Amino acid sequence: MVFFKIIIPNYNNAKWLDKCLSSVANQSFKDYEVVVVDDMSTDSSRDIISRYPFHLIELKEKKYNGGARNVGIDYPIDSKYTLFLDSDDWFYTEEVLMQLYYHLKEHPVDCLTLPYHIVYEGHEADFPLLRNDVKSLVWSDCGACWTKCIKTELIRKFPENTLMEDTIQHIEQCNYVKTLDSVGFPVV
Questions:
Q1: Is the pLDDT of residue 158 over 60?
Q2: Are the beta carbons of 10 and 69 closer than 8 angstroms?
């Protein structure tokens, strides 16, 4: 059993994909496996993915983000926790997984909220997401799946062929999370 399973859906995101995958490959903590689900890309994405020692699933029919994430969930890797990372996101430092590991070893919880740093149209900001109770998770302003590290046994599937699939899954996921903690450093 690995400690982390990291699921990365991708569709035609060659522009950011190498930065995303290298941020995972360069982590100092190595007890993880990565599943990259390519949703029928027509750009150079698969060539980029093939340079990394990750599990690559090349879909033969379009699944969109929700379906691609579900394929990653179903991929048979036994892990304690699951993280989702979009192909245009990356880990903030090479110590992210190590910090998460030590935090979870000291404070094992069902869900760990992950602060993030965003760059959008030339502006940058940190979003702390410091939530320590399940009620606050339910009312969270960010349902993005990449803002949480969840016990693998509690992961719920995403709706397929719809917009806002991670927000819909977030609401369902809250029914299964009983214990919650947060970290104070940017992860993504």
A1: yes
A2: no
